[in-house]
Amino acid sequence: MDTLLVLTVLIVIGALAFDFINGFHDTANAIATAVSTKALTPRRAIILAATMNFVGAMTFTGVAKTITKDIVDPFTLENGSLVILAALIAGIAWNLITWYYGIPSSSSHAIIGSIAGAAIAAAGIGALHLEGFLKILEALILSPILAFTVGFIVYSIFKVVFKNNNLPKTNKRFRYIQIATAALQSYTHGTNDAQKAMGIITMALIANGYTDSTDIQLWVQVSCALAMGLGTSIGGWKIIKTVGGKIMKIRPVNGVAADLTGASVIFGATAIGLPVSTTHVISSSILGVGSAHRLKGVKWGTAQRMLITWVITLPISATIAAIVYYILNFFF
C-alpha cells in the first residue's frame, strides 16, 4: 500500500481518537456543575452531553477551517503527514496524562501547541503562519479572562435580583434551569471542540493531495461528531470531580451563572471562527462566579494548580510533538 495513503489513514484514525479522548476529557467540564448540584444524575448528564455535543459538532465548520489554514499552510507544509501525525500523538499523550491525574488541562492548547512544535521541527519557525497563529493564541489567552469577568458580573446581577428570595426554593428552581444550561453548554462545546479534529483531517487531506479545498467534507464532519459523542458517553469522572467540587462548593444558582457564562463565551468564539479552550472558559467562569459569591469560598490552591497546567501545556505539547516528529522522520 502507498506510504502516503497509510499515513493519511493513520492521521484520520489519530484525529478521531483525539476527538474521542476530547469527549471524555473536556466534555466533563460542560456537565460538571449540573452533576455536582444533583440537577442531573451522572448517567442522564452524559447522555444529554453526548447528544448535544453531536448536534453542536454538526452545526458549524468555521473553527475547523481556522485550524486547517491558520497555524501552518497545508498546501506548502514540508513532510505534512509526519507533522500532523506527530502533533496528534503528542496531543493525545498530553490529554491522557492530564486526564489520569484529574487536571482540567486544555485539549485545544495541546493540539495547537503540538501542530506548532511538529511544524517547527520539520521546517523551522518559518513554517508557522504567524499572523493566524498569534490570532489563535490571543483567543486562547483572552477567553478565560473574559469568562472570569463575565461570570463575576452575571452572578453579581443574580445576587441583586434574587437577594430577597427564599434560598432553598430558589436553588430548587435553578436546579431545573440548570438542565437547560448544561445542555446549552454541551452544545457550544460541540460547536468548537469537535471542529479541531475536522480541521486536522482536512489539513492532512490537503497536504497529501486528496483535496484542494479547505471546505470540510461531510464524512469528516459526521465522523468527528460521532467520535466526540462516543467519547462523551464514556464520561470523565476525574475531571468532573475537580471542576464540580474542588474549585468551589457549587449550588444550582452558581451553576446556572457559570453555565450561561461559559456557553456565551464559547459560542461567541465559534461564531467568529476562533478555537478556544472550553476547559479554560468553563473553569474560569466558575472562578468568576465563585469570586462574586464569596472570595474565601474559592479553593485557590486548585485554581493555581490548574493555571500552572494551562501555562505549561503549549510548550510541553510542542516539545513532545517535535520529539515524536524526529522519531517518525527516522522511520519514514
Question: How does the major sheet shape up?
Answer: none
| SSE pattern | HHHHHHHHHHHH
Radius of gyration: 20 Å
Q: Determine the mean pLDDT.
A: 87
Number of strands: 0
Helix content: over 70%
Strand content: under 5%
Secondary structure class reads: mainly alpha
Query: Quick one: overall form?
Result: elongated
What's the layout of helices and strands?
Elements: H1 3-36, H2 42-57, H3 62-70, H4 80-100, H5 107-123, H6 130-161, H7 167-207, H8 218-234, H9 237-245, H10 252-271, H11 278-293, H12 300-331
Helix pairs in contact: 1-2, 1-4, 1-7, 1-8, 1-9, 1-11, 2-7, 2-8, 3-7, 4-5, 4-12, 5-12, 6-10, 6-11, 7-8, 7-10, 10-11
What does this structure look like?
The mean pLDDT is 87. Helix content is 80%, strand content 0%. It has twelve helices and no strands. It has helices spanning 3-36, 42-57, 62-70, 80-100, 107-123, 130-161, 167-207, 218-234, 237-245, 252-271, 278-293, 300-331. By secondary structure, it is mainly α.
In brief:
This protein is an all-alpha fold and about 325 residues long. The protein has twelve helices and no strands. The chain starts with a helix and ends with a helix.
Q: What features would you highlight for this structure?
A:
single chain; 332 residues; mainly alpha; 12 helices; elongated
